[in-house]
Amino acid sequence: MAPQFRSGLTLLPGGVGLSGAPRRPGDESTMVVAQCRNLSRSFGAMPVIEGLDLDIAQGEFVALLGRSGSGKSTLLRALAGLDRDVSGDLQVRGTVSIAFQEPRLVPWQRVWANICLGLRAERPRDVAAAALHEVGLAERATAWPLTLSGGEAQRASLARALVREPSLLLLDEPFSALDALTRIAMHRLVLRLWALHGPAVLLVTHDVDEALTLADRVLVLSGGRISYCCQVNALRPRDRTSTEISSLRTRLLAKLGVDTEGIR
Known about the structure:
By secondary structure, this protein is of the alpha/beta class. Helix content is 28%, strand content 23%. The chain has helices at 72-79, 111-115, 124-134, 150-162, 180-197, 208-214, 243-255, and strands at residues 32-43, 46-57, 61-65, 87-92, 96-99, 168-172, 200-204, 217-222, 225-231. The strands form 2 sheets. It has a 6-stranded mixed β-sheet with strand order 5-6-7-3-8-9, with helices on both faces. Residues 1-28 have low confidence and may be disordered.
């Protein structure tokens, strides 16, 4: 879905790069997909996001950590164009799709119809079939959503987001309700689809290990702003016991206010 912005919030013209963007080593052509400058959002007298600055580069996988109530989902909603009551400068280049913690499938539509809901395509069912094949749900295309397992429903939600070929994919804790084995499978699937389609990804999660498994860059949101940022340079698949990952985990937990003494 394409974001709709309130007056004063603009879309980047196609092909425009911005200075200060996080760039991959050796790639000077990388451009910014999303940029926030001095972004703020309050609920009544309570500021949730306050003067936030953020760049997300084309093809970059970013994870966003923060305590409950720190504004992570509020930021995602702003980037998706679902919250018009933000102030500051918010720019997004291209199409945005979002997958939520709950799959939010329409129960009275078959799975394939959920995938292409609102999609403008000549042969939407064929497009849906291709997307379902990518996430391993080809045989469930005509099933009703309520017959899907939790993992299947999240795969369908991911297919629905990717079928729109977004330049920015927003993931709002989509794996938090899944069991451990299903989460591992979903992590592998997301990385495969990210490599295949190449969107920029912003993943909101409470799980430090999940962030370090998936992301190129991990951010901590506190006090309404990005309070900490670290690059994750380890090759995928990542070894959670490696010195680099262990050191980053300890640092991130400390930034989140978790006492790491005795944690291994």
